[in-house]
Structure formats: C-alpha cells, structure tokens
Amino acid sequence: MYSALIHFLRPKQDGYILSPHAAKSVNLIAGEDIVHLTKSGYPTDDNNDANYEAFCSVIDQMKKAAPYRTGSIDIRERMECEGYPMDDWKDYIKELGF
Q1: Torsion over CA of 96, 79, 8 and 10, rounded to 10 degrees?
Q2: Which of 56, 66, 70, 79 could form a disulfide with 25 if both were Cys (CB 3.0 to 4.6 A apart)?
Q3: DSSP track, 7-42
Q4: What angle do CA 86, 62, 93 make, to 5 degrees?
C-alpha cells in the first residue's frame, strides 16, 4: 500500500498514511475490520482502494465529530500513539487484542 505517497503528493491532504496503529484504531472505533491486518498487526496486501477509502472516511467522520477544532491529519496523527496520553490508547488497543 502506498498511502504515504498519496498523503504527501495530494495537494488537498485528504489521503492519510495507513500505519498499523491508525489501522487498528480505525477498526476498533468503527467496530469492524475496515483494514485487513496480519496476525502481527500490519495492514495486509489484501487491502484495496475500497478499504483505503473506508479508512479515510472514518478519519474524516471523526474530524467532523471532534469536540474541538482539528484537522483530519491531526486525528490520524493522534492514532500513532506517540507520547502520553496516547500511550494509554496504545495499551488499550493491545489489551483488546488488536
């Protein structure tokens, strides 16, 4: 999947990097397997453009529902689970078996 190219080359910045943590977060929040993951938690090659579009759509919906003004890029970056309090989110995802 070449999501980083889509993210960096699209002028509108409406494509997001499909990282393992972002994929797990989207699957958990959506309550379904939007992004197919390997047993070790990485996006598989079975993901296609429909999976990627659905992934981006969930992030866009989260942006609209956010109680504070933020961009979709900020939402996706928060899913990367870097630093406190996002470490708690990362631990929660692991606890649930994602």
Answers
A1: 90
A2: 79
A3: HHH-TT-------HHHHHHHHHHHTS-SS-B-TTSP
A4: 35
Q: Return the biggest CA–CA distance within the chain.
A: 37
User: Residue 55's closest CA among 68, 69, 67, 43?
Assistant: 43
Q: Left, alpha or beta for 81 (phi > 0: left; psi -120 to 50: alpha)?
A: left
What three-state secondary structure class fits 6? Answer: helix
- pLDDT tens for the chain, 98 residues long, are 555 545 555 556 666 778 888 899 899 989 999 999 999 889 999 999 999 999 989 988 887 776 665 555 566 566 655 555 556 777 777 787 76
